Amino acid sequence: MNDSMKAQNLARIRDTQRRSRARRKEYMHELEARLRDYEQVGIKASAELQSATRKVLDENRRLRALLHKRGVPDSDIVAAMGGLNDRSYDQFSASAF
Questions:
Q1: 41-43-49-54 Cα dihedral, nearest 10 degrees
Q2: Running along the chain, 97 residues long, what does each successive block of 10 average in pLDDT?
Q3: How far apart are CA 78 and CA 86, in angstroms?
């Protein structure tokens, strides 16, 4: 192999390496953008879930109050809810947020 061929070969190798680095860099940027998108979707889903949970907890509080107003004893409510009494319900409500 003469010097000219060696120089051409080295130039080709450098060019291939440069293009490979550029592709890898672009791929990393794409992955980072996808990660940011997924994080935003996760944040939105979490906020929606928290909102729905708040609504359910509020509805449950109102339903319990209505049951109390209609004279349903706490023991019947606890039994119907599978043993979830007011204290554990309130603790869950407080810890949910």
A1: -150
A2: 89 96 98 97 96 94 93 89 67 58
A3: 8
